[in-house]
Design brief:
Elements lengths: L1 E7 L4 E7 L2 E8 L6 H4 L6 E6 L4 H10 L3 E5 L17 H14 L10 H33 L12 H7 L4 H33 L2 H6 L7 H11 L8 H7 L4 E4 L8 E5 L5 H17 L5 H13 L1 H22 L5 H48 L1
Parallel strand pairs: 1-4, 4-5
Antiparallel strand pairs: 1-2, 2-3, 6-7
Helix pairs in contact: 4-6, 4-8, 8-10, 9-12, 10-12, 11-12
Length: 382
C-alpha cells in the first residue's frame, strides 16, 4: 500500500508520497479535489497521514469514501515524529515527515470522532459563539450605562433586555444602546433555538441525561463531555480521562524519582471541556451543599490549600466521576461517592501515618549516630 503524507494548510495542501524511504512525488494544491488524480477513488489504495485539525474530519471522510486508509495524527505527539523540528513552518517538509512515518509504520493516531459526536460538537460551538456574543453585548451596554451615571441592576442574562428597557436610562443613553438591544434580542432568540436543538440531541443520547444527574453538571456540561470523550471504553481509568482533558498536574522528575515535583495542570486537550468542568466545580463549591460528598471532598481541600486548587481538583474528580458513570451506565450516587471519599481519606491517613513512622525511625537512627559522631570528633581533635 502506498505511503502518503498531507499538510493541511489554510490556503494550500502539501502532498508527499514516499516509497522505501525515498520521496517519489511532491505537490502543492489549493484543495483536496485537486489531488483527485493522485489519491482519488481511481488511484491505488494508500495510507495517508495528516495532522488532526478542523478540516481533518472532512478530509478523513473523503479519503475513506475514496477507498484509502486515512491516519489522523495526534497533535500532542506529532512533534515526536519530527514535524516542526526543522525550525520553520514548511508545509512540504511536514508532509514528508508524515509520509515517512507512515512508510515506517510509526503513526501516533488521534481518535476520530463519530459523526454523531461531531454534530453535537458543532452545535456546542454555535452555542458557545452566541453565548460569547451575548456576554460582549451585555458588558458593552452596562459600560455605556455606567458612563451615563447609572448602574444597571444585577440580573440573569435571559432577563437583561427587559431590565434595561425598564430602567431609568436617560433618553440619549437609551437611544445609544437601542441598536445593541436589537442585536441582543436576536442573539437570545437564536440561542434559544440552538439550546432546543441540543435538548433534542440529548434525548437521542441517553448518556447525556444520565451524566446531567451529577450536581453542578447540566445539559451543556454533559453534552460537552460526551462530545469530547466520544467513547468511555477507550480510556483505561479516570486518571487517563483527567490527563486527556489537561486537568492532570504537570510533572518534573529531573534528578531522579526522589526529586519528583508536581506543577500546575497541563491544559492539554479540549479547552472548552476543561473550562466547563472547572465552572461546574466552582458551582459546587459555591453551593455550600454540605450533604453532597463532592462538596465535602472539595471543601476539605479548600480549607488546607485554597479554593482555586480545590476547584481544579474537583474538576478533575468530576471528569472521573462522569467517566465512571458512563462506563457503568449508572446515575450519580451520593452514597457511593461518600464511600469513595472515605476510602480516599483513610488511604491518605495511612500514607501520612506511614510517613510519620518513617520520619520517627529516621530521627531515632540519627539520635543513635550522634554520640558516635561526637566521640569521633573528639578523637580527631586530640
Amino acid at each position: 500500500m502506498r505511503s502518503v503524507g498531507l499538510d493541511l494548510g489554510a490556503r494550500h495542501i502539501a502532498f508527499c508520497e514516499v516509497k522505501d524511504g525515498l520521496v517519489v512525488e511532491r505537490a502543492s494544491v489549493r484543495s483536496l479535489a485537486q489531488l483527485r488524480s493522485r489519491i482519488g477513488p481511481d488511484s491505488p489504495a494508500a495510507r495517508i497521514a495528516f495532522e488532526a485539525s478542523r478540516e481533518a474530519w472532512h478530509v478523513y471522510d473523503t479519503l475513506v469514501a475514496w477507498g484509502h486508509d486515512p491516519k489522523m495524527l495526534d497533535t500532542t505527539r506529532v512533534r515526536a515524529l519530527g514535524v516542526g523540528h526543522h525550525g520553520r513552518k514548511n508545509d512540504a517538509l511536514d508532509a514528508e515527515v508524515a509520509a515517512r512515518a507512515v512508510d515506517a509504520g510509526r503513526i501516533p493516531e488521534a481518535h476520530v470522532l463519530s459523526p454523531e459526536r461531531r454534530a453535537l460538537r458543532a452545535q456546542l460551538s454555535v452555542r458557545g459563539a452566541l453565548v460569547e456574543t451575548r456576554a460582549h453585548y451585555v458588558t458593552t451596554i452596562r459600560g455605556l450605562a455606567r458612563a451615563a451615571g447609572l448602574l444597571l441592576p444585577t440580573c440573569t442574562t435571559g432577563s437583561f433586555v427587559v431590565r434595561v428597557r425598564e430602567s431609568t436610562l436617560d433618553e440619549a443613553t437609551r437611544t445609544l444602546v437601542a441598536p445593541l438591544l436589537v442585536v441582543l434580542t436576536g442573539v437570545e432568540a437564536e440561542l434559544a433555538k440552538v439550546e432546543h436543538t441540543l435538548s433534542q440531541m440529548a434525548e437521542r443520547e441517553p448518556i447525556i441525561s444520565l451524566l446531567a444527574t451529577v450536581p453542578g453538571v447540566g445539559l451543556i456540561v454533559a453534552s460537552t463531555f460526551v462530545s469530547v470523550i466520544d467513547e468511555a471504553k477507550r480510556f483505561k481509568n479516570a486518571q487517563a480521562v483527567g490527563a486527556y482533558l489537561g486537568l492532570a498536574p504537570s510533572e518534573s522528575t529531573t534528578g531522579g524519582p526522589s526529586k519528583r515535583r508536581l506543577g500546575s495542570i497541563t491544559k492539554r486537550g479540549n479547552t472548552y471541556a476543561r473550562i466547563t468542568l472547572v465552572q461546574s466545580a466552582w458551582l459546587i463549591l459555591r453551593s455550600r451543599a454540605k450533604d453532597d460528598p463532592l462538596f465535602q471532598w472539595a471543601d476539605r481541600i479548600a480549607t488546607t490549600r485554597g479554593k482555586k486548587i480545590a476547584a481544579i481538583a474537583l474538576a478533575r474528580k468530576l471528569a472521573g466521576v462522569l467517566w465512571a458513570m458512563w462506563r457503568d451506565g449508572t446515575v450519580y450516587d451520593p452514597v457511593a461517592q461518600a464511600t469513595s471519599s472515605a476510602k480516599g481519606k483513610r488511604r491518605d491517613a495511612r500514607a501520612q501515618g506511614a510517613q510519620a513512622e518513617a520520619l520517627e525511625r529516621a530521627a531515632k537512627k540519627l539520635a543513635r549516630r550522634a554520640p558516635r559522631r561526637a566521640q569521633t570528633s573528639e578523637v580527631a581533635m586530640s
